[in-house]
Amino acid sequence: MRRDLLLVGAVAYHPRIVTIWERFRDYFGETGVPTDYVLYSNYERLVEALLSGEVDIAWNTSTAYVAAEQRIGGKARLLGMRDVDAEFRTVVATRRGEGFESPPELAGKRLALGSRDSGHAAILPLHYLEREGLAPDSVELLRFDTDLGKHGDTGDSELRVVEAVARGDADAGALGDATWAALRADRHPAVGELEVAWRSPAYYHCNFTALPSLDEARAAAWREALLAMSYDEPSLRQAMDLEGVKRWLPADKSGYEDLTEAMRRQGLLE
Amino acid sequence: MTVRRCETGTLELGGGLEVLVSAALETLRPGEELDVVTESRGAAYELAAWARITGHEVVDEQWEGTGSERRFVVRLRRGSLERVLGSAVSSGHELPELGAGGFATDELRRIVGPAPPAADSAAGLVPLGAAAERGAPGYRWALSSRDPIWSGKLASLADRAARAQWDATTDIPWDAARGLKPDRERAVAQVMTYIAQNEYAAYYLPARYLAHVHPSYLELLLWLASHVHDEARHVEVFTKRALVGGYRAHALASTELSLHTLLEEHDFTSAALLLNVLGEGTFLDLLSFIAAHAPDAATATAASLAHRDERRHVQFGISHIRQRLRADPDERGTLVAAVESRAAKLADLDGLSPVVGESLVVMSARSLQPADVAEAGAAVRSLIHRMHRNRVRRLRAAGFDEATARHLSELHTPNLM
Fold first, then answer.
1. pLDDT for B138
2. Class of B4-77 per CATH?
3. What is the pLDDT of residues B281-314, one digit of tens each?
4. pLDDT in tens, A48-91
């Protein structure tokens, strides 16, 4: 085992994760930053692996990062994020023509949410809707807690959310705006009769998290290689498409304040 | 600088919004901006998400107007990524001439240039004139050199083949096949079975190349596909004619032996000589004979329709070999060796199967009275001579000298194909 190897941990929420990381591993190697990866079945295990030093870098969801950051005492080092992570939003969809002007109008209605550990499909929508005047106990929540531990990555709970709204089991449903846009652009039948009624402020989504103990020079080399990954390189395009990234960006902590507060208020932080 | 506006009305994502916006963004350079105007708040929200996942940037969002006049304006900045990783596609090429015959396949080459002498054997399924996107999985095309598989007549032959398609189910006067006397019907069934057996070989041989020809040799693909389709129909029509009268016949081992050696030939040009020039050429004479002497209109029609197809196949073979012999004199030795080697394997085959020969006589005789049988027997003998003469003529047309042509014709399988 090479000592200079950086080990990245990720969650195997879909078989394509193997395709992605096989290619990325080769890419980092070709770039002179030897890297390998380990896959975990859920983000709780990934966070444990990061904290115990089993992996050097964790490819975290926002909720996994906030949980890790809490335990590290605010000292996590962020090495990058996807272009789409920098301006993530949650949308609330309703049946077409049944939208609302402001969140308090949802009082007395049924609101569908994705997996309870999903920042974008459960934790943040409740938080932001409350901030915009919707009392949490005034709506009937319809939760789809599928794929727990995956923090909403699979998109399964979000699909159930829009299906519930389309079916009439819920009056409104929350999901990530990227998932929504992808379903709509693919002309998925579940969203054909729905529309977006509300969207949240922007926040950050996933990031590469490292411990403060990671050597700065090694962290910098890895970050530099990450940011240099080009979507215009044919052999990288497929893996980047699967990862949903066109450009990697530097990451900072400014986009996680709302989620941190939401998780604290909802009792999700130790 | 004024920013271009893209009016999208009430269009939603998945319902046309992304179509209009994509088309407008395509006209911009990376970094240039576009104002997308929508009457729908939901569309504005989802447009922003769509722009992000497709690599563009939302620069600004504004409401314009009030009440029913309210419009949402989303300002997008075009991202720098190309949607397709390929060289730019050119436009404004020379237009094809559209004559009375329509868009002839020959015209394709005026647009895209000649077939490449050597094609990239790892290329993908790229239509003529298209630019391949980089990063696609590749193939390993076995036939990616033009000259060993080419003929200048491919395009026109393929066009002719497409025009000459017929239907073995409805284009044959099947009722006319009923009512022959048992001896003649049995003879017809045997001759038809023999032909169908041979047509199988004419099917499998070109079909084998079809999957290995490089996609940039479109004319050859069209040609081979028509060839295979023709032969499939020939198998069909002769099988149907064999069975329509109530009798069944033998698929003969001697025929099988001959066809087996034909299918063992893997060189494209040698196969063209053995199948197209020698085999199908000889069958031209056989099919003419049957068309003229068949006891019923169904058999005669099947033979003459098949004859029309086989003429094209023979023309391909002659034109391909003539071109090869001109380009590479060494090819002659290879071709002669192919015929000799097959003849050596067929050394034990000393004539057309008597079962087939006698059936031909019975089929074409007016009656089984001795005088009629003698007349039909003479006609079959004269057919065999005519086959040899015409083989020599075709081999000469393909570019062989007289002595070689006679030599090759004499070595041709007594099974005819």
1. 87
2. alpha beta
3. 999 999 999 999 999 999 999 999 999 999 999 9
4. 999 999 999 999 999 999 999 999 999 999 999 999 999 999 99
HSE, CB side, 13 Å, CA atoms: give it for residue A91: 30
Same domain, A93 and A167: yes
Identify whether A11 is part of a domain.
Answer: yes
Joined together, the tokens standing for residue B134 give 């980089």
Looking at the structure, tell me whether residues A79 and A107 fall in a common domain: no
Residue A132 token pair: 């915009």
Exposed / middle / buried, residue B237 (Cβ in 10 Å: 0-12, 13-18, 19+): buried
Mode of pairing for the β-strands spanning B33-38 and B4-7: parallel
Average pLDDT over residues B66-87: 90
Counted domains in chain A: 2
| Pairwise CA distance, residues B283 & B191, whole Å | 12
Residue of B nearest to A101 (CA): B41
Domain presence at residue A180: yes
Instruction: Give a yes or no: residue A241 inside a domain.
Output: yes
CB–CB of A246 and B81 under 8 A?
A: yes
CB A84 to CB B82 under 8 A? Answer: no
CB contact under 8 A, A181 and B12: no
Determine, for residues A237 and B41 on separate chains, whether the beta-carbon distance falls below 8 Å.
Answer: no
Stretch (H or E) spanning B184: helix B182-210
**Residue of chain A whose Cα is closest to the Cα of B54:** A246
Query: Domain residues for A101?
Result: 89-199
Last residue of a domain, one of A152, A174, A199: A199
Query: How large is the ipTM?
Result: 0.91
CATH of residue A246's domain is: 3.40.190.10
Enumerate the residues of chain B whose CB falls inside 8 A of the CB of residue A235. 135
Are residue A149 and residue A183 in the same domain, yes or no? yes
Residue in A84, A185, A231 nearest the CB of B18: A185
Judged by CB atoms closer than 8 Å, whether chains meet at B42 and A195 is answered as yes
In this complex, do A195 and B12 lie within 8 Å of one another by their Cβ atoms? yes
In this prediction the pTM is 0.81
Neighbours of A106 (CB within 10 A): 24
Whether residues A81 and A93 share a domain: the answer is: no
For residue A141, the number of C-alpha atoms closer than 13 Å in the C-beta half-sphere is 18
pLDDT at A3 over 70: no
* Domain C-terminal end among A177, A199, A221: A199
How many Cβ contacts (< 8 angstroms) between chains A and B? 74
Query: What residues of chain B have any CB closer than 8 angstroms to a CB in chain A?
Result: 12-14, 18, 40-43, 45-46, 48-50, 52-53, 55, 58, 79, 81-82, 85, 133-135
Q: State whether CATH 3.40.190.170 applies to domain B147-411.
A: no
Residue A1: is its pLDDT beyond 70?
no
> Looking at the domain assignment, is residue A97 inside a domain?
yes
Beta-carbon contacts of residue A257 (< 8 Å; ≥ 6 apart): none
A84 CB neighbours in chain B (<8 A) are: 52-53
Delimiting residues of CATH 1.10.620.20 domain(s) in chain B: 147-411
